[in-house]
Structure formats: structure tokens, C-alpha cells
Amino acid sequence: MGIKKTELVFQSRQEGTPLEFSPGETMSGAVVLTIDGSKPHKLTSVVVKVRGRAETDWKTGSGDDESRHRDTEELLRLDLTVLGNVGGGQPTALPPGRHQFPFQLSLPPRLAYSLKHMDGKIRYECSARARSDSFWSFDGRACVPFEVLARRDLSAEPQLARPLTVSREARFSLLGRDPGPFRLYLTRQGFTAGEVIDISLEGPGEAFQALAKADGTVQLKTRVVFRAGVSTRQKKWVAAAVRPGSSPDAWRHIRLTVPAGEVTLDDSSGCTIISVTHYVKVRDVHLPVVLGTTPLRPS
């Protein structure tokens, strides 16, 4: 007798598909309780909780010198009482049968998206607990993980529409001819998938000749940084690349297309122990860019 089954159902979920929400979206659903037996069952409360957490965890060294680096950060905490009063009050008697308690909870507009990596992860879950009034009766519990989709509205960050200029100075090199000084210029700093990053280079002719002779690539790179106290660990990979070629003039203006699936995750999302940043690499110069899902407004 008592609570036979506790379920969480969501309006936006189709059977067989993962539960996903965007930042700022409202989670609409219901706690469904099935009461068995022949008598009413008394509950003090039914509470819905939404939690988000970032975790980092990796090891360095081996044997006696092995060290473990771990950290956690709470990203989201939402509570909603859908039945009763958590602080006290009279219990509610539910007759045998199936009972639904609808709820709505709005996610914040800026929220770190779900991420899973061997050195860290960002995860979310929605849980419900039905508290029985009797000490001898079991509480009802249900927990459903969900994913927060990668969303970043660049139109809300007008500063990313400003141009960016980075100057490179001549450097001594043992690996070949140094191209010498040149300047790199971006017309803006925010981009979405499918958009083209226009990179302009200015400098003496010798610089373009050296770049062309090296016949290297211009890369859009992703850098993921995991933090645990004062320790950090990072992973980098090439998200997109283009080879301008062996003609010096080809290095004066370079076009690099942003691929799908890359979204910048920085402190503005509320997560400080995991970050995902992007930059354009030309030779040994890095130009930081921000990748989002909603483009900048036309100027």
C-alpha cells in the first residue's frame, strides 16, 4: 500500500527521443503518482528539482607520483513544490489511482550546454520526490537526465561586430625563414555555422613570399580547457582549415568557412571550470573569435 510508481513526463518529449531543452526554454511536464491499496495515502509534499553541474576529473603522473585533479561547480538549481508545503502544514490524502501534478520551470537564458569528455562533463537532470506522511511508508522518487542544447545568440553581443586587428612582429626562427612583421584584420569577431571568416593580411611583400613558400594552412581551432583548483588540462583540435597555396597574393585575403557543431562556451554561460574557445591561427598568430548559433544583426 502507498506509492506504487512515480514518473516524470514532459510535454516536449517524443517517445524514443532524448530529452533536450534550449537555454531560456520552459520545461513543461507533470509528476505522475500511482497510489495502490484500498485506502488513501497521505503525502506531505511533492517537489520537482532541476539541477545542473559541471565536473572535471583527470590524473597525472603514475605510481607513487600519481595525482588526481577534481572539481565540481553547480550551474543550475531550481525547486518547485507542486503539492503541499515543504515547511509544514496538513498532509494531503490521495485516493488509490493515478494522479498528475503539472509543473513549469523556466531555464535561464544563458546556460552552459551539455558536454561529455574523458576529463570533464556538464550534465543536467530533473527529479521529483513525493514525501509520504508516515515514517513507515516509502517516498516516491523519479529522476530523468536531459541535455541543454548548444545555443548562443550573437545578436545579444553587439561588441562582437567590432573589427579585430592583431600585429605580428619579426621573430628569430630555427625552423626556417621567418615571414617578418605583418598585420591580420577581421571585420568582426562573431560567427555562426556556414558563415565565412574573412581574414586580411597587410605587410611587406617579403612577408607574403615567406608565407607562400612555407605553404602552410590557416586553421580555425577549438580549445577546451578543464580546471581543477590551480591545475588545468586542455585539448585542442582543428575545426576547419584552408591552404591558401604557393602564390604570395593568395595570402593577402583568406576565407575560412565555420563548420557546424562548434559553439563557444565561456564564463558568460556561468561555467568557470570548463571552457570551449575558438581562434583563427595564421602561422604563430592567434585571432580569437566567438562562435554562436544566432548571427549578429546586420549593421
Automatic annotation (TrEMBL):
One of its GO terms (cellular component) is cytoplasm. Residues 21-153 form the Arrestin-like N-terminal domain. Pfam families: Arrestin_N (PF00339). InterPro entries: Arrestin-like_C (IPR014752), Arrestin-like_N (IPR011021), Arrestin_domain-protein (IPR050357), Ig_E-set (IPR014756). It comes from the Eukaryota. GO terms for biological process: protein transport. Belongs to the arrestin family. This is Arrestin domain-containing protein 17. The lineage of its organism: Eukaryota, Metazoa, Ecdysozoa, Arthropoda, Crustacea.
